[in-house]
Amino acid sequence: MLVNPASYKDPAGFVFEQNGLIYRQVNKEYAPFYNQLMQSGLYSFLTQKQWLLPHEESDQAFNLSIDSFKVLSTPKLPFISYSYEWSFEMLRDAALLTLDINKAAIEHGMILKDATSFNVQFYKGKPVFIDTLSFETYDTSRPWVAYRQFCENFLFPLFLEYYLDTDINRILSAYIDGIPVNIAANCLPLRSRFNLGVWLHVYVQHSVTGNSKKESVLPFNKVKMQRMVEHLRQVVTSMKRQSPVSRWTNYYQGSILSDEYLSEKEKLFRLFISGIDYAQALDVGSNDGYFSNILSEDAAEVISIDADSPCINRLYLQSKMDKRLNILPMVVDISNPSPAVGFNNTERPSFLQRIKCDLVAALAIMHHLVFTRNINPKLLPELFRQLTRKWLIIEFVPTEDPKVQELLTQRKRFHSYDVLIFENDFSALFEIEKKAGIPGSMRTLYLMKKRD
Amino acid sequence: MMNLLYVDPGSGSYLVQMIIAAVLGVVFYFKSIWWSIKSFFTRSKTPDSTKDKVND
């Protein structure tokens, strides 16, 4: 049995894994709230809407601890991602889901006691709430206990990304409990103060925080609570970021490499994947997800990562619209993936600790790692060996390639890099199964199989 | 900010929620006045236009 290290905080219960299945123990302390969740109709409402991950009560005797009330078995999600790996729209949708769930809970006589972004995961282009134990009885005379957590985890990051028109994933990964109000208040531009939502939730909160010597609880009521949740919803909905044009937008369309190159590469790619079996694929440097789409056609689960947040945002919007796609887009820079953070550095594992796929596609990424990030190409086979269980499709881009020449006009070349060295280095860890030059370019596509 | 370490995570947030609720209450009050003025004029338009027609 493996207790999830992220579960150490919650006295209501904990998550553990056994024989590849995910279970959640409900402690006796939480029993009245669990019963209320099930009997009030809230659970069936939330699961019908597919807002909450469903569970079944397990009759297996685990005998984990004396305070065990029930053990629930829940479906295992293919991959766990964190808010610092989401694009703007993903964080926004996760925030809206949290508010919608809270609204439904209030209508059923309960309320969310936690509003952390870690309680939301993405599955098949949709956010889903995973923590069954986050509900408690709603006391209408009290304000929302998780309000500050909601602000720090969702509202402040969204405000910052919206008003600064940038991505703050890196900053989010440093603040595991969310962005503190003083950081938000000091970083947001002056013009944001003219927005009622920002003024109330950031500036008023900032001036009040820490000044409350005595907790004077004036009675709150349900109307006030519903009005506040509705207001938060309006604030979040009104933040519509115009899809920023990034360096990588129109990478395929505007590329000096010809249409012939792209269609020939697609043909080869389809040929390579048709002969292999894979259930999970990772597309490294996915850009808009042109090849992620192809990988997803065979009902495979695809994880698409790119350092460029606008690209991932567009891919998310596409996967949200197209229900057939099973793509999880994530803002991850493979040359600097998300670190392990939290208590003991085990609470939230690093990206590399979480990822393992049957197939890894690394198309037109190698030259960026070598020439832009200055990574020694000799280190790359080991990286890909870690990422894949079996297959690797990798594109080699030679120094003579016009795109590499473009890169080299601005920087010095450090590492020895050519196709023979590449093949030699990768052969130590992989067997080269197929290899083909891509017509319309000087590039080569490889299908490799990991050596046992 | 050291003093925050000894403050319950919910506190302060209660006070701010009370202020927010009060502000939203005022906003809601003025909005409802605005809506009633608006609906008064939109309602009064119909008889006006029929009157015009009668005069024509």
What features would you describe in this structure?
The complex is a heterodimer of chains A (452) and B (56). The two termini of chain A are 28 Å apart. Chain A is built from 16 helices and 16 strands. Chain A is 38% helix and 19% strand. The model of chain A has no long low-confidence stretch (mean pLDDT 91). Chain B has 56 residues and is mostly helical. Chain B has one helix at residues 13-55. Chain B is rod-shaped. Residues 1-5 and 47-56 of chain B have low confidence and may be disordered. The chains are: A alpha/beta (452), B mainly alpha (56). At the A-B interface, helix 4, helix 7 and helix 8 of A face helix 1 of B.
Q: Summed up, what is this model?
A:
The complex is a heterodimer of chains A (452) and B (56). Chain A has 452 residues and is of the alpha/beta class.
Helical fraction of chain B equals over 70%
The DSSP helix count of chain B reads 1
Largest protein interface, residues of each chain: A-B, 28 and 23 residues
Q: What is the percentage of strand-forming residues of chain B?
A: under 5%
Descriptors:
heterodimer; A: seven-stranded mixed sheet; 38% helix; 19% strand; globular; B: 56 residues; mainly alpha; 0% strand; disordered C terminus
Write the layout of secondary structure elements.
The complex is a heterodimer of chains A (452) and B (56).
Chain A: E1 2-3, E2 13-18, E3 21-27, H1 31-39, H2 42-48, E4 56-58, E5 68-74, H3 88-107, E6 110-112, E7 120-123, E8 126-129, E9 135-137, H4 147-164, H5 169-174, H6 181-187, H7 196-208, H8 222-238, H9 259-274, E10 280-284, H10 290-296, E11 301-306, H11 309-321, E12 327-331, H12 351-354, E13 357-362, H13 366-372, H14 380-387, E14 388-396, H15 402-410, H16 419-427, E15 430-437, E16 444-450
Parallel strand pairs in A: 10-11, 10-13, 11-12, 13-14
Antiparallel strand pairs in A: 1-2, 2-3, 3-5, 4-5, 6-9, 7-8, 14-16, 15-16
Helix pairs in contact in A: 3-4, 3-8, 6-7
Chain B: H1 13-55
